What we know:
The structure is a single chain. It is rod-shaped, with a radius of gyration of 38 Å. The protein has eleven helices and no strands. Helix 1 (7-16) packs across helix 2 (18-31), helix 2 (18-31) runs antiparallel to helix 3 (33-45) and helix 10 runs antiparallel to helix 11. It has 196 residues and is mainly alpha-helical. It has helices spanning 7-16, 18-31, 33-45, 47-53, 62-89, 92-104, 113-123, 138-141, 145-157, 161-169, 178-194.
Amino acid sequence: MATGPSKEDLETYWQSSRQYFDELARHYQTADPEYYKEFIKPYYDNPFRSMSSGKTGKSGSGGGKVMVIAVFLLVLIGAASAGLFFIMGNSESVKEKVEELTSDKDVTEQKTTKEKKITREETGITEEPLATDKTTDDNTEELSGEDNFIIGAKYLAEKKYDKAAWHLKQIKKGDKRYNEAQQLLESIKYLKKFDK
């Protein structure tokens, strides 16, 4: 015959008064080891019971602490990942270089010779083109392949496909950005076709 509280009483103590339950456990562990092994020890041995007691709102259980720590770590990792994403996404050195390159020079779109002829015919000008109408511009000769690539990528992001293509075409075949520029030029063909 059990000499201590009933199973229902123990369950109530476990959920509502953990401190009293622990005092009972210490008492019966020495006073009546058989009762302790049969009725009280299963509460401590079952990890799911200690996890479920954390759901009742009591803060004394180990399972509740583990859940709080796990949630805190997930939030911390998420915040660190978001911070890293924004830091890596906003690389100021590239933006500063693009702004520096585009602010010093007046970057204009060059028309092809065919477009110039059509424009002259439409306006009624029949004279030979002036020396300033050459297709090479002094400003663009100073730009390196890397600079042209950055400016072209900027225009591509702004959906100014003609300007982007012009800058990407200025990259010479031996340049380290040549292959990437060719890929972007292929992309521009499709973007022009499908972008509305």
